[in-house]
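Worked example 4.2. Below are the chains of a multi-component assembly; read each line carefully before continuing.
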Amino acid sequence: MHVRNTKSKSLILETLKNSKQAVSHEKIQAELGESVDRATIYRVLNRFCEEGIAHRITGDDGKQYFAACLKCQGKEHRHNHLHFRCLNCGKVECLPNEIELKLPAGYRPANFNGFISGHCPACA
Amino acid sequence: MHVRNTKSKSLILETLKNSKQAVSHEKIQAELGESVDRATIYRVLNRFCEEGIAHRITGDDGKQYFAACLKCQGKEHRHNHLHFRCLNCGKVECLPNEIELKLPAGYRPANFNGFISGHCPACA
DNA sequence: ATATTATTGCGATTATATCGCATTAATAAA
DNA sequence: TTTATTAATGCGATATAATCGCAATAATAT
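Applying the procedure described above to all four chains together yields the following structure tokens:
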């Protein structure tokens, strides 16, 4: 199964990389207009996550947000940090703080998904 | 606006209280069968959250989970703890650890929503 | 230039949750 | 207890996020 480079793919990757924030499908669609189909955007994003070049985080609004992996190289594909979602302007940012996951014995963690929602400095 | 005590309401509250875990609409519906309508379950849960007798948490699967408030009395209506969702059996538990929310200056937090997903001891 | 097939676009579909509105039933008042 | 008031419910329609099936398109190997 040879992977192919397509226009949609590069457009979406560029959008992810240009954004300092985590973006939803909606944002990407708005950015790209109707040039790329909705289903394609979702499929490309899902592939990016599988390939490990993007993160998927589920917002406390129940929507999916995506961000290009910057720090995580190769094996260490973790992002144990919190995200902040502004209730007013809707932007989702990665917060600097790492969270240490302390779990009771016997639990096997796979993913961390943390959100603080509230008001960002611009909207407060 | 006088609040009324109804059968649905007490059934749902009892379900919440009996469950040691956070439950989704689906779980509650399964528990109660068709005796209570879907919309009613959602509406009652939403009211519970407004009244401060239940917590709403959004799972990293994008679904809403609800839990009866136990510790939080009156003013201190916080639940800055993580939740664990088992990828196998689907159960959602509250973890003991409190998380301290350190935010950069200017950010005004309103809610915390944290999930670790993975495998619980029974499923690991 | 051609063949192969990964990827796309489109429409239909699933899943979660909410809404409008007529009906029901919990509570207050008579 | 009976009646009136209206909060709450049930039902069907609707909103929104995301996925799926399948024919058409286009990226790459030959």
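Take a moment to check your reading of the output against the notes. Chain A has a mean pLDDT of 91. Chain A has one domain: 7-118.
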